[in-house]
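Hey,

The postdoc asked me to send both predictions to you directly instead of through the lab channel. I've kept everything plain text so nothing gets mangled by the mail client. Protein one:
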Amino acid sequence: MNKLSEMSAVAHLQSLTQMLTDLGRDGVELFGHRYSSREFGGFEIVLGREMEQFKLTWDSFESILSVSFVPCPSKSASALWAHEANISIPEGRGLFQEIAAMTRYLLAREQPRGSPQAGPQRPVTSAEAVFAAQTKFA
């Protein structure tokens, strides 16, 4: 059993709230959330901005973060998610920090470099490096 599968629902919500507060400063919103204690604390969140949304699904049993996106979400139709990558995060260490970093990376790559919405440049996290390598040849 990994560290995140032992996380209570309250601890999950506290970590999520802290991450959302931090991402909110960058204009990132929460569009959806699902948590299941029956899935060892697995969860799914949809983050982004109005026209750029990303679904991040945590499989705590396998320690895999799955990343999907929808190019232009529609309010009237079901979203058609395109799978981007699966990222291994052993024992879920730093999971919420990786989700925040991945969200910023995904939103920044959609903006031209130097645009005001792209935000400040920062070092790339391990998950971002893996993600970039996986999607480079896709």
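Protein two:
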Amino acid sequence: MSSIFFKNFSKKTAFIFIMFFASFSLNSVGENVKKSQSEKNQSEKEKTATKTDYEAVIKEYKDFVKTTKPEVRDEIKKYREKVADLNKQKSNLYKELSQEAQGYLKKEKAIRFKIPIEDRREYIKRIYSDINSGKN
């Protein structure tokens, strides 16, 4: 039956058929290009809006910093430097751990984050106390 279909299928019909689908696909491509251009314009408008928002926030932050005493700013700067040093020490300590210990910490962290944040500390304390006391 398919051979009958193809015998009666002329070259003109095939050409019309191909042109129809080609024009249909070009129209859909054109619509996608128009959509992507409008989305691009929208994102540029959002960037402009956020840039002006950021400028307002930066101005507010500068005004706030000006009202802070220089001694307090120096104290905060030293605090942040100490925190950065502690973070470097933590990173170095982690790198000194064996691969097995690093894997344990990654797995433990993934499991802990499944516990609701409000109850996380309480549950973890209870788990470790149960393990240390020999409970299952």
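Summary for protein two, as requested: Residues 14-67 form one domain.

Thanks,
C.
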